[in-house]
Fold these 2 entries.
Entry 1:
Amino acid sequence: MAPTISVDSLHKSFARHEVLHGLSFEVQPGTVLGLIGPNGAGKTTTIRCLLDIIRPSSGALSVLGEDPRRAGPGLRRRIGYLPGELILESRVTGRRLLDHFARLSGPVRPGRIAELADRLAVPLDKQVRELSKGNKQKLGLIQAFMHDPEVLILDEPTSGLDPLLQQEFLSMVAEVKTDGRSILLSSHVLSELQQSADRVAILREGSIVANASVEELRATAVRRLRIRLEDDGGAPDTPALASAAGQLERVPGVDGIRVLADGRLEASVHDGVRPLLQTLAGLPVTDVVLEEPDLEEAVLTLYGPPPGGGSGHPPGRPGNSGQPGHRHGRHGRKEA
Amino acid sequence: MFAIFTRGVVDSWRATLAWAVGLVAAAALYLPIFPSIAGTGQMQQLLNSMPPELTKALNYDQIGTGPGYTQSTLYGLLGFLLLSMAAIAWGASAVGGDEESGLLELTLAHGVTRVSVVIGRALAILARLLFLVLVMFCAVAVLNGPSQLGLDLGKVAGGSFGFAGLIALSAAAALLGGALRGRKVHGLILGAAVAVLGYVFNAVGRQSESVEWLLKLSPYHWLLGSDPFSHGVDWGVCAGLWIGTLALMTLAAVVLRARDVGR
């Protein structure tokens, strides 16, 4: 099936300063792709290119099979967009504002706006300037979702939303997926994405440094292991601890072993846990904590210089080693 | 385009109404005192006592007649000032101000073309402007008898249409200025340049033959130099002002279509 969104070798320069260095990624029908990266990585620039708000310097873009540069308003009616910096006219009521957008991008099913407003608990008859940041963000979400677009492009959608509404947002995302529609959403925090996204593309300084499914990311992310041994006496330097540390060191994918102040052993686990469990079975362990894989840390590792001095490649440029999933290169491109 | 147009007209009705009140007040302030000035000869005495350069700069040389008085005080001065301010502010905000504040991005992401947004907003500005000029015309028509102005309303109507074109030219320049780089201040500068320089070139150009060429550069003079309220509007000039307005507005649409928005 043709991808809903396809970005191929997207370059963008502003006044001879290149900010996007040849991005490529795809969003498949019925899936959610999370674009994640620190502020200034190029997420918003990429998204604005997809909406034809700014124009690529080079590269091929396709949304719903059409080139945004040429497709015109017909294509944008099929897209729901939430800008990262949402600015709304302030001297109108939310209802009037949404009615206006409905006239531009409609048709909107009768009752749909009220239904979404109920769901997100936003007052529609107040002037926009009287609304809190969170309520304005909800109006932004409503205008993106109300015409049931075939693809949603949401830039930092949950910023300003309280946790309860973030849950509501997640269920709205799930419904879109169930309908077979697609979503591209960006965030600078992974925790916002890991519940909603199927895949994550990590952007750094205008390049994609990794493109992986959340599962792949999880599988390669570091887990932290903490164990307590029998008769350790709470002291950090018993022979039992030293012997256990020695055995753990020989387990593939385990490193960073150290003794904590309370006498427990801590280690980082990179790969599968089976060899580790076999080793642990032979140790006089009284307590084991193996944490959930820390995706946040996995992503931060990709943002920053590679741990242990790196692989000799500039950080974040193609060629980095040790990254999860596959790099998006020439394969998986849009069929012409 | 229609949704953009109606929104531009309807949502700003309060501001439009406020400007209308201001213009009616200006007419009500100036016009009723004409009989007391013209009838007593005091005005002529005052004019005689003023340096001729000043009378010319203020276009007060025709002030002894009703049409001349109406043109000099209302259309040539206070009405021109008020309407230019309003129109330049609208023009500069329509694209430049909207883009600068971040509002334009979301509008353009919806089912519109950039050209339709610019044209819709430009037409909304023209509609509001024509409404205000019509209000002025009505005020003048009502005051014509009581203030003994002796105006030929047909000529006032033609002059008003030309006057709307003169103001619209500044609005269009402001729209274009804002559209060039997405900055409201560029619109204000370009719009004000057309209005203010037009006024100044007229005032200076009328002083002596050596600077008369300045009059050729003044849209203000193109229209008001032939005393349209006394002698009827020069339809060629009128058409020129309106064609210039539409050309600048079209250029604004072309410029916006060609560039990145919001940076």
Entry 2:
Amino acid sequence: MRKYVRVFAFAARDQIVYMPAFLFRNIFFVVILFTFFSLWRVIFAGRAALSGFTMVQLLWYLTFTETIELSKSRSLFGIQEEVKDGTVAVTLSRPYSYVLYHLMRALGESYVKMIPMLVVGFLLATLFVGPLPGYLAALPCGIVVIALGLLITNLWLIVINLLSFWSEETMPYYWIVQKLIFILGGLFIPIDLFPQWLSGIARMLPFAFSAYWPSVTMVSFSIETFLTALGGAVFYALALGGLAAFLYGRGKRRICAQGG
Amino acid sequence: METVLSVSNLTKTFRVVEKRPGFRSALRSLFAPSYREVRAVDGISFSVERGEILAFLGPNGAGKSTTIKLITGILFPTSGGIEVFGMNPHKKRRALAYRIGTVFGQKSQLWYHLPPLDSLRLLGDIYDIDPREAERRIETLAETFEIRPYLRTPVRKLSLGERIRCEIAASLLHKPEILFLDEPTIGLDVIAKQIIRDLIRRINEEDHTTIFLTSHDAGDIEKLCRRAIVINHGKIVWDDTIKTMKYSFLRRKVIDLKLESPLDLASEGVEILKAKGYSAKIEVDLSKVELDEVIGRIMRNNKVADITISNPPMEEIISMIYRGER
Amino acid sequence: MRRGADAAGSLHTGRSAARLFSHYVRFNLGAGMEYRVSFITQVVGMFLNNSAFIVFWLVLYSNLGDINGYAFGDVMFLWALSALGFGLAGVFLGNATHLSRTICTGELDVYLLQPKPALINFLLSRMSISAWGDIAYGILLYAFTQPLDPVRAGLFVLFSLLMAFVLVSLRVFYHSTTFFLGNAEEFAATASDLVLSFALYPGSIFEGPVLLILHSLIPAALIAYIPVRLVHSFDPVTMLLLLAGDGAVMLAAWGAFRLGLRRYESGNRMGTRL
């Protein structure tokens, strides 16, 4: 177990050192958030709330969904590179779990990215719309669900990259999952604003746990919300983790059968 | 004899900015730079006649690549003059491009995922060659370079030797009058090297193409080139024929002996490189002793079963030149 | 067969330029088709990728009437325009995004040593396959969401072309900083596509100093918002100003590249010497 923790720490340290990427990521974050703010300010003119969301809640909601999206690991795309050029064969005989190794690396990267982004998001949102009522109260539970949301997103990336054992192009799968998270998962709009027939389903899909649930836990906290978010997140994390392990096992067999 | 290239008192100085990692310090350096001057090429002069095969040698960092880039117009000089076909290469780079060809190791003109044939056809357009004429030339090149079997295979699937042949063929499509080659045989096996050398010699003989070759490979220099220019620390330290280099520069001979008893030889100017059992290898310094005297002494004091007299390897000659020895 | 600069006529130059362009396009398409399945997946994938946002706007607009004068149709116009513009830029001048990399690896030399203008030669030599998906999407989205009107369609194509040129110019401009500062790839990638983050939203939501920026440094207004205004009510003065603005951006890019190239040719580069 210790070796995985070390991988995590290593990836984390790596992130801290690399300044330019940090800058660009956060600049992009500011721009996106500003655009959202400009949009929703106009939409909310003359209304107090939309489907139970005030403008304040909505903008803060978006800071959390974007934080998760922008903190996801980029290094995971290395998996498909490894598979494509065959260097993955080297790792087959190593004494650790391939999936777990990459997951820990991804999380080290993600959690370090996430922290300054939460701070930046806090400052920006406060600047644009003012403070979020109940922020501090929601934070402890919210952070857990956000962390799980990042876990799930990274697991998706691992699963998609593992598909490169079978498919030459994995980018299209990535785009599809990303868009499902963006739209169905409530990254751009809280699921509460969806038409009735859609919102029920969308809430239960795994995509919602990468965006909607962590963010709604923060902006309109309640124990029920938290428990639903937690439960679903754990469930999907295990499911995706299992899928990843399964795919790797199959993929490994494929490589061994074909001789690399 | 027509001079195709002449360089006079060419100097190139770089201001190398002290680089510290990171985008921000790069930004800072832009406004308050701290730099040092490096004189990569220091007042060199030489000229090349049409049809020569010239080796351009020097250790890494000597100024070789810089000189080539100056001659081909990629860089402009700090001072001094260059004329290629009477033109200033930097000012007339595009006009010159029609008349020179280049094969630079790491930078390929061939698209990696496509067959060489496609790249050749594209190059035909780039060099404004009439499409039908281009097809004819591709056919001829395929024949000469024996690359017809690979013309339709993606470049990434070719071996290094096959790829280099295609690269050189591509560089000749527009019938350049000078061909610049940078380390063309590096990484190749002995047979492949010989094939490339033969091809280059053939181009030179048949089309009178001037060849300007940089190489670290002694075999290239010895077997292909007729003249060598050696550059070190930005200055030319040697400019003469290979023949002269081999015979007059180095006054040493290496003698391999197979004897019927251990070697008995004591002589000034003779260094025993290896003496084990009944075989020996010695090096004779001809500035200190005459060759026939040494051979005489060997024959008098030993029973010689076999004797071979040869010149020191080219590598050694070259490194001596680099070191500035005479 | 030609040798050296041809004084015989610009007709010849024009014809050879056209032939080179078409050759590059066929060549790049051929390179893309090498992997047929990959080609299709990329195009279809990008198409679906773009389509997702329609849902977003549908959901949004189901809750409201218009957004400061922008109707649903207007937002769809923005998307169609941006998709087509972005797609054209990626298909025909797709190498712009690789400029930093090319400078750093010294591969730029290959283009300098060929008898064609380096920048154009460089830009033409790569095609983004997924950008075909953007083109398809842009055209189809336009066809499905915009009123049938040949003038409007004509303007749409024109504005898309202009957007493509501006996008490429922004990329060339920002990537040219690599000549001076070393590998600025990430910076340039972020900066040059930043304009799209704005161009995909109704211009009417922005005001004040931000709007000023959007008319200059991040020319989203230039490539997107003003075109929307012009298709609603065309006005030759605004059109001329738009063309002038686009021209200025392209000039700036070309200038930045030339300055950078001069620096490159001096050999005084940051970091590793040749």
